[in-house]
Amino acid sequence: MTTVPIPDFPAGFRWGVSTSAYQIEGATGADGRGPSIWDTFAHEPGRIVDGSTGDEACDHHHRYAEDTALLAGLGVSAYRFSIAWPRVQPTGAGPANAAGLDFYDRLVDGLLDAGVDPVATLFHWDLPQSLEDAGGWLNRDTAARFAEYADLTAARLGDRVKLWITLNEPFIHMTLGYGLGTHAPGRMLLFDSFPVAHHQLLGHGLAVAALRARTTSPVAIANNYSPVRRIGDTDADRAAARAYDALHNQLFTDPLLGRGYPDAPGFDPTVVRDGDLDVVAAPIDVLGVNYYNPTGIRAPEEGSPLPFEMVPLDGYPRTAFDWPVAPDGLRELLGQLHERYGDALPPIQVTESGCAYDDAPDADGRVHDPERIAYLDGHVRAVHEAMAEGVPVTGYFVWSLLDNWEWAEGFTKRFGLVHVDYPTQRRTPKSSYAWFRDLIRR
C-alpha cells in the first residue's frame, strides 16, 4: 500500500458497504418466511464446504440495530442490503407477507434515522423454492412473478429506499446455479442455461416498470464484470478471449443498453419473443458494477465442451479465495465500459469490491487485516483514476460490512470490515473498518 494520500473524491460521491439477505439474516423460519433455493441447497449433504447453512448466519434479523450502529460509526452514506423474496412472498406468488415486510420497514427506518441511505437489492439469488419447483429462471413465468414481487415491495418501501437494484450478478447466478451446479439450485446445464439469462433480464425490465409506478427513486441493476487477460497469441486464443468476454461482460449488458444480445456462447434466440428486448432495455439510472478480479483465458484443449479455458493469472498477490488482487483490472474494466457503450452508459456505482482473508482476533481481541486495507486502497485509487479519465463513477461499496455465510464456502471465507465470531455473534470492527471510516471522513 502506498503512503501517498488518496486523491479527493467529489462532494456527493456515495461511499457504502454491501450485504445480502441469505448471507447475514438468519431467522429462516421467522415472519412466515418461506424456503428459498439456498435453504434447500445448503441442507443437501456435500453441497457446502464446511457443512454449514444460513439458518442463523450473522443473526442480522435480530441484530439489525447493532449492525445499523456499526454503519453509523463507519460513516457510510449508503448501505446496500438485499430483501429476501421468500420473506416477502413465501411461495413467490400471491399477496405480500406483512410480517416479512415489517422487518424491512424497521431496517429502512433505522437506517434513515442513522443518516444512511437505504439501497435495496430485490434479488440476491434466494429464489423461493416453490418457483424453482416450477422451473425457476428457466420458466418465463418467473419473470412475471419477479415483477409482482417488486411491485409489492416498492408499495411498502418505495417512499424511503433511495436506490433500487433489481438483480445482483445475474451472470454468476446463471453460471454457478444453473450452468455448473456449484450454487443453488444446483443444476448442471452448461450452455443450455441461456434461458436463465433471458428470463432474469426480462424480469429486470418488468421490475423496472413496476418500480417506476411506485417510486421516484432511481433504479439500477448490479452486474459482475471481469476483464479478460488473454493467455497466448494464437487465433484460437483470441477467439477464446472474445467468447469469454461476450459471455461474462456483454451478455447481461448489451441488451440492457439497447444493443440486443451479443454473439455469445450458448445464445438461444428461441426464448426471445417479440417485444422482449424493448422490455429488457428499459432505461436505468445507474449501472452497478461488481468487480473482484480479472480472468485469464486461452484456447481450450481439443474436445472441451467450452470454447475457452480459464487459466490462473501469475504475478499478483492472492486472496484467501485464491483470487488475484488486481486493482488495475478495475480501472481497465471501468474504462472498457465507458469506451464500449459511450453515451448509452448510465452513471456507474461500484456496488461490490472486496476480498477474503483469514482474519482472526489477536491476544488483545483486536483484528488486524492489513492485506484488506491494501486491497481497498488500491481499488479506491483505481476508481479515482478511471474518473480522471472521464468514466462517470458516482459511488463505491465495499463487500462486505460483516463476515458472513459465503455461499458454497460456508463460514470458511471472511470478507467483512467487521469480524463476526459465529458461535457468539460478537462483532469486532477490524483495522480496515477504521481505515475506511477515516477515508470517508476525510
TrEMBL record:
Protein name: Beta-glucosidase
PANTHER family, A to Z: GLYCOSYL HYDROLASE (PTHR10353), LP05116P (PTHR10353:SF36)
Signal peptide from the UniProt entry: none
Gene3D superfamilies per record: Glycosidases
GO biological process, one term: cellulose catabolic process
Enzyme's top EC category: hydrolase
Superkingdom of the source species: Bacteria
Active site, UniProt feature: E169 (proton donor), E352 (nucleophile)
Catalytic activity, reaction form: Hydrolysis of terminal, non-reducing beta-D-glucosyl residues with release of beta-D-glucose
Pfam families: Glyco_hydro_1
Chain positions recorded as substrate binding sites: Q23, H124, N168, Y292, W399, E406, W407
Keyword line: Carbohydrate metabolism, Cellulose degradation, Glycosidase, Hydrolase, Polysaccharide degradation
Record PROSITE patterns: GLYCOSYL_HYDROL_F1_2
Any GO molecular function: beta-glucosidase activity
GO cellular component, one term: cytosol
Family: Belongs to the glycosyl hydrolase 1 family.
EC number in record: 3.2.1.21
NCBIfam families referenced in this protein's UniProt entry, alphabetically: BGL
